[in-house]
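Order emerges. As here.
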Amino acid sequence: MTYDVGYYDKNLKIKKLENSMKWVKFISSTLLFFATAIFATPTPKTDYLMVQVPAIQNNPNFIAYPVFVYNGGPGAGDQVSYLYSPHVKMTVGTYVSGQTSGIYQFYFFDINRGWLSCHITLTAGRIDANKLATTCLGATLSRDPKFTNAWVLSTSSSNVAGWSIMNNPLHPSGYNKRHIIFNNNTSFWLQIGKSYCPNFSTCDNRQTNDSYQKIAPSASFIEKLGNAGLNSAVYYLSGYCFANCGSPQSWFQVGSLNQHSYATKIEITMFPATEQNGMFLPQGESRFRASVAGGFSGIAAMTVIPFDSSNQSRGAYCKTLVSPGVSKVDYYSPDHVLAGIFTPNNDSLSSFCAASSYTSASGQSWSLSVIDSTTGEFNGCLSPCSYAKLYSTPDQKAACSVPKAYATNMTNSQHSPIEGVQFKNVHVVAKDHAHQLSCPAETGFIVNFMPAALPNSLSVPVINSAQPQGLDGAVVSWQSARDSLQPNQTINYTLQLTLPNNSPISPTPTISYDSNEATVTGLASGQTYKAVVVANDMSVYNAQQSNQSAPTIFTTYNFTSPTSVAATNLMPTSATINWTPSIDTLPNSTVHYTVNISTSSGALPGILTVPTDSTSATINNFPTQSSNPYVTYYAMVSAATTDAAGKVYTQNSDWIPFNIPGQPWLSAPVLTGKSAGSEFDTIDWQISSAKPSSFSPDMTQESNYQFTRDGASIIPTSSKCSGGICTTLFSRQRGDHSMHTYTITGVASSQYGQVSSAPLTVQIQ
């Protein structure tokens, strides 16, 4: 792909770079940085970006108005701004210092040379000084001195040097499509009045029509402007009707007799779009004001939303005009309304009307509620003037003259109410208009008349995460909610915790809040919970609570005690302790154990302590207990782990008792007597004494003893024990003869060793 690119040299002679691949490479690389989507619904940013271009009309060496701004390189992007004078600054999007990147292309039409263009490139919030990246001379970026939240991108030079001949930009649109949409969202008919100046340039013969347009329930009326303009045209709600609306007598008029003082009044100025070079272009921005006057008129709320007439899904960047250093820029859309009128304290219209009263000049109290005689349903609320007209009261003039003004519940997105909320009754008027707002020339407006039950304008918060913290807590964070009717209103939040089956938590945990985050303590470890968040808007106009967020399920971290502690391999001076390990779900943690041995349950510190990372430990060096056949000890296993914050947690098992044998002791058998026969010799002997008595093998069994004759093993012919005394019979051996002697020795054997008796001499008979 190639481009023909034109530019001016110092002598303003046109040159062309044909088939310039340099420009193609520049566009390709620069578009990678283009991260600011101008017409996408913006998320809240720190500041806004405006553009401004100086120009001198009717001079071939200088820029001429109008100047069009696009959000891309040559021939690319959408029109984002229209500049018609050196004093105007128009918003083209959001700006974040150090982040915003994009290309802004400027066009104007020269009658001799056609369309001329230059561009400025922002990279990471700064002007790119590369000569291909920025061709507009004297490009600057600075904070605006008037609007507190705006920066201005400008060309300080009005000279056309640096401007190139380009193809026609996409034809500007939207200026001949401007319109105002009135939506009747109530259940009754509404009547719109209009007060306007037929001639835009003068307003000497303002005309007023209280019955300009009637709108059926759930219907709309579209005021199409085309190329025409509006000079301080005032639209207002002048009446309403519940039934039989074809009859004039069924309509309740809400204005006063002697002045055009109406509720829900808005004032709009739009400049005419005049033809220039085949295009219809306005010579100024759209202006907007709103106020409440002359009675509440039977509706609970009104909202005003600006939109781009060429694309109704887009909102508009409007400026609140107050004074230098106070004025602001903001983006308005269905999620961020330009202005609104509401009942106070989120009252329904029926309760608000019932609580209001009017005492006439004759001292009579008027009930201003309109109740259907058949169904008993509330149908609307009369202003005192409407009541006086409907019932032809004798003090109608006094009721409609509005002798005293009260502050209203009017507000817009930038400012507080005019003088606070001080309702005395339904008959209220505005002492002053709201601050004027200035919107782009192509802006249209949507006016919504809301039903008596004001819809919830508070968006639902979205939980980002619910992260367990320690063993008994969690941190829950969420995205901010937004009040579309009052976006500057302070919003607080409530975190609601239950068990997954919606059962309450006992005991109640402690919750502390910090902006869009809550820290919870006092939860049970290893327990699953359900979290939801609701937003609370405590506005005096529309106090409300959002719907619950989508629930988030989380489980606290768990750390359990060691279980199934047991003692095995019991020896007089050692034992092995085994256990089932702790459950530990803390991230990046390691469990360490300590085995405690004590001579009594619960006694710490114990007499022996052994640390280990295993689930088994051999305990050595038990004290010698030779005087006792058994010794009882107690074992307890302590587990310890550490969380990410360095906090140490411990869990202890139950104490378990166990016995180990005392120091072993075995006496020698005692050979006590002998006798000789012709074939056998008989030995009487006493068995060994043992400690503990539970020796294995059992020392009362003859099989645990051996005998030797003259040092050689000899097997008894028979043996019988009774009462600790045994008689063992030995057969004569070959070679034995009378008067021959030999020595018998008894040996007791156990797992602790052998013990020999004293030798016994036997003489053969």
The first strand starts at residue 5 and ends at 8. The chain has five domains: 5-165, 179-450, 462-555, 563-661, 665-763.
